[in-house]
Amino acid sequence: MSPSSGTPGPRTAMTVLGSAPLDVLDAYRTCEFVTLGKDGTPLAWPTAVARRDDGTLLLTTSLAFAQKALNVRRDGRVGLLFSDPTGSGLDFAPQVFVGGRAQCPDTVMAGPRGAEEYWRRLFERQPHSRAYLMRPMRPVMSWYYLRLLITVEPEVVVVRPPLAELPDLPVTAAPAGAEALPGAAQLAGLPTAVLAARDASGAPVLARTRPRPTAAGYLVEVPEDCPVEPGPASLLVHRHDELLDRMYNALVRGELRRTAAGWVVVPSSVVEPMGSGRASDALRVLRRTWRSTDRYLARRGLRRPKVQWDRFRALAEPGKESAPAGRGARPAAKGAPHH
Questions:
Q1: 0.70 cut: is pTM over it?
Q2: Phi first, then psi: what are they for 283, rounded to 5°?
Q3: Could you tell me the CA-to-CA distances from 173 to 121, 170, 177, 213, 214 in Å, in that order?
């Protein structure tokens, strides 16, 4: 309440996020972040996030994967779902959905300024990423450190039960032809996926679900507190180990429809930005990240900034920033880095 007028005052990011279990939110290593594509499709990808003292959330994206930033500049409505507790140390972590509005200035960051805690935590939780700072890796991985900062101001928080508390579903055989659906192989690899859809206002919403293949598409469970509407939708699958290594993600795009059997995602295409995990994918992905980075800079008439390696290394190895950068270098990580 406003002390002067007796009427409700504006809700701040701090008060909105304060309704979430902050210790649980901070323990999550990744979240699913959804933006709205140019055609209105909700597009979700896993990313690291840092909570700021003012109640806002900070994410970053490299220029090589700038679509999230471009989407935010077109429509700031976003959502974050904390639903994969791998590496968090929590056995029964509740799921947390945060809806809000995001901003992403068109300022290319070549150093950690303004995101120091984000990078410090990432280096701590993803120790293999420190190898990217070694001199032998710098010519290959410099694109990774050219970043755009995305700040999310929360407007709504929904806390859901842990996945382990969801009721078991009856085991049924997939109908004939279901294996030919786009995304069948990707969705079959993991027991759950994240549904990205829109509510009645057009804002993106997220819910972790267990897709079941049918002749028409993927039957999905939608919690009552996730008010989806028919329209463009997608299903995200992703995984990582306890140290944010061995990453994989894929997005199945399609349309969400209401049927007599329930909500069904009718798939149309599959996107695997980091490849399918084969060793042969690495070089192809690396070439694409460099081209995408150059294209982003060229369209804005910008030169490629010089990465502030020493400042990043000071966060990755406190007290060792003066050591020879090439000492202790090791091979590139096997898992894909965060976008």
A1: yes
A2: -65, -40
A3: 43, 10, 12, 9, 10
Tokens of 271: 């996107």
Rg of the chain, C-alpha, whole Å: 21
**Could you tell me the end-to-end alpha-carbon distance of the chain, in angstroms, rounded to an integer?**
41
pLDDT at 276 over 90: no
Residue 249, strand partner residues: 238
Q: Which residue did the predictor score with more confidence, 173 or 23?
A: 23
Question: CA–CA separation, 37 vs 268, rounded Å?
Answer: 15
307 in Cβ contact with 134 (< 8 Å): no
Helix (H) or strand (E) holding 45: strand 42-47
The number of beta carbons lying within 10 Å of the beta carbon of residue 113 is: 10
Q: Residue 283 CB: number of other CB atoms within 10 A?
A: 10
Among candidates 314, 312, 332, which has minimal Cα distance to 137?
332
* DSSP H helices in 207-258: none
User: At residue 249, what is the residue type?
Assistant: N
CA-nearest of 201, 188, 174, 199 to 235 is: 188
Query: How many other CB atoms are there within 10 angstroms of residue 261's CB atom?
Result: 10
DSSP for residue 63:
G
